[in-house]
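Teaching note: in complex prediction, the entire set of molecules is handled at once rather than each chain in isolation. The prompt given to students was simply: 'Predict the structure of this complex.' The entities are:
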Amino acid sequence: MATPIPSESSSPRDRLLETAAGLFYAEGIKGVGVDRILSEAGTTRATMYRHFPGKEALVAAYLEREDAIIRGYFAAAAEAGGSPTELVAAVIEGIAEDATRYHRRGCPFINAAAEYPDADGEIRQIIERHRTWFRSTLAAVLDAASVADAERVAASLVLLRDAALVGVYLDGDTVSADFRRTARSVVGLG
Amino acid sequence: MATPIPSESSSPRDRLLETAAGLFYAEGIKGVGVDRILSEAGTTRATMYRHFPGKEALVAAYLEREDAIIRGYFAAAAEAGGSPTELVAAVIEGIAEDATRYHRRGCPFINAAAEYPDADGEIRQIIERHRTWFRSTLAAVLDAASVADAERVAASLVLLRDAALVGVYLDGDTVSADFRRTARSVVGLG
DNA sequence: GTGTAGAAAGAACGTTCGTTCTACTATGGC
DNA sequence: GCCATAGTAGAACGAACGTTCTTTCTACAC
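The expected output is the structure of the full assembly:
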């Protein structure tokens, strides 16, 4: 099974979250029971319920964690320096690479949304916040690079990223080339 | 709740499938139990297990039904006459309209794939077949309309349709305009 | 009429679900 | 030494899961 083993030494809470995140992403949320998480994290029920009010809180923490990771990517890319145009290219490249490397089972947020129909629930609100942040951040980056109609282009890029993640999952890696080409054309990069 | 009531008169099997399809799409598959389906379809366990070996067969039938409906759309559009180019335009328009009208909760196949990680399982095979058919049918339509590089353009269109369905679900109807514009540009329609 | 099949009704199966609980142990601060 | 905290261990809860079963009733074919 080669489960991504949360290093024995880390805290139970970290192991719990890391294990849950891995399982939720790999197998879907409703398809994974707390017993699975507990046994693979090597901890017990009491410990889990000490740190999280319930399973849904674990789901929320999983998505918040995913959100934080992606924000980290952006922060790192921004700090890495380079012209605004280079940053735009780096973002597109980063999305393509992420899809084929770390997100071969699709987008965690889209997948979660498939299982959580209630648009007012906590889970969907986290998804909503993430997507809003992503779109506006993209718009800011594009605007800095003097891309015309940054808002609209950003919306298109979000669409394309969704498609790339779904496509790599269901159709294979060839999709990432399609994404790169289309995205670069949309933002006006040769 | 205003459940889409499967007309009392239809056969138990039809009511079962219709109800299950509605519930699976609206609330996710693992999130719906057979008891729910049974009570909303107004039938009993014994009847269900006479017609379907189990829940998974019901899921499979739901996706096959969805597949058949979409193939029906294509057949109808093709029979409606018109030039190949008009057919291409009609397909794009049909997708945009479908997303905002009948598939406001996203793509049934993408949503199902989120819950079924096993690529070799029956469910994922149905999804695979559907996507392959869709892409190749699109390529044929584009080729007939003398669109250059029909295969590649078809792949792009599949991507865009995925994005449109996800986008309308999570971001709202404005996405459908983005889809129309981008899709028409990709296939070379003014 | 008799026989057969499909549907309704509902009890019951064992399993798993998420959750709560008690009891015991190890750790660290005062 | 003492208390609080956080961990382990495991029993137990009621509810829901998917599935199997028996029984009764209706309808249509022969």
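Point out the following to students. The interface with chain B takes residues 26-28, 30-31, 105-106, 110-117, 127-128, 131, 152, 155-156, 158-160, 162-164, 166-167, 169-171, 174-175, 178-179, 182, 186 of chain A (CB under 8 Å). The two ends of chain A are 43 Å apart (CA to CA).
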